[in-house]
Amino acid sequence: MPEIEEISRAIRERLDKKDLARESALKTSRQIIRECRSAIASLQKGNDAKENMERARKAHTQLKKMLAGFPDLLSAGYAVDAEQELAEAEILASCTCGKEAPSPEEIGVEDEAFVLGMADSIGEMRRLLLDRLMKDDVEAAGLMLGKMERFFNILMTFDYPDALIATKRKQDVARGLVEKSRGELAMATQMSRLRKNLD
C-alpha cells in the first residue's frame, strides 16, 4: 500500500495536468467564440465567412482533443458556450446559402449546445430579415420568416427541465422575435402592395 505522500504526489500530478488542460481550453474556447462571432458578422453583411469558420472548426477540434481525458471540463460552461457559438454560426451559414442545417454530429458538438445554438440563430435570422426589408425585398424577407418559424417550431418541441437543457428563456425570446418579425413583414407587404397600386 502506497504512503500518503506518494498518493498526494500522484494526485497533484493529475491535477497539474488537468489545470493545464483547463487553462488551454479557456483560451481555445475564447478563440472559437471570437471566430464564430466574426463569421456571423460577415454573414450578416453578405460577405464570405469561410476563413473564420475554418479557424473556429480547427480550434474546436483542438479543444476536443485537449479535453478528451477530462469529460467534466468538456461539459464546463466555457466549453459549452464555445460549442453553442459554433453551432449557431454553422446553422446560420447553412441558412444563408440555402442548405439544410448540419447535424450535431457533423459539427462535432453536444446535443445541448446544438439546440441552444439553433435557438440563438433565430435572432440572427431576424437581422437578415430586417436587412431584406430595408432593401424592399419583401419576398426574400418572407422566406427568411419561414425559416425562423420552422426553427422556432422545432425549438418548442424541446420541453425539458432547465437542469437538463435551458431552453425556456430562449423559447420566450424566440417567440417574441418571430411574432415581431411577422408583424413587420405584414406591414411591409401591405406597403409594397399600396405602392404598386399607386404606380
How are the secondary structure elements laid out?
Blueprint: H1 4-44, H2 50-66, H3 71-74, H4 77-96, H5 104-107, H6 111-134, H7 138-155, H8 168-198
Helix pairs in contact: 1-2, 1-4, 2-4, 4-6, 6-7, 6-8, 7-8
What percentage of amino acids are in beta strands?
under 5%
Helix content: over 70%
What CATH calls the topology of the largest domain is Methane Monooxygenase Hydroxylase, Chain G, domain 1
Mean pLDDT: 91
Shape label: elongated
Terminal CA distance reads 93 Å
Q: Rounded to an integer, what's the Rg over CA atoms?
A: 21 Å
Helix and strand element order: HHHHHHHH
Number of strands: 0
How many helices does DSSP assign?
8
Give the uncertain stretches in residue-range form. Answer: none
Largest beta-sheet details: none
Structural class: mainly alpha
In CATH's first tier, which class of the largest domain applies?
Answer: Mainly Alpha
- CATH-scheme architecture of the largest domain: Up-down Bundle
Write down the domain tally.
Answer: 2
Task: Give a written overview of the molecule.
The chain has 199 residues and is mainly alpha-helical. It has two domains: 108 residues, Methane Monooxygenase Hydroxylase, Chain G, domain 1; 90 residues, Methane Monooxygenase Hydroxylase, Chain G, domain 1 (Up-down Bundle). It is 80% helix and 0% strand. It is built from eight helices and no strands. Helix 1 packs parallel to helix 4 and helix 4 crosses helix 6. The longest helix has 41 residues.
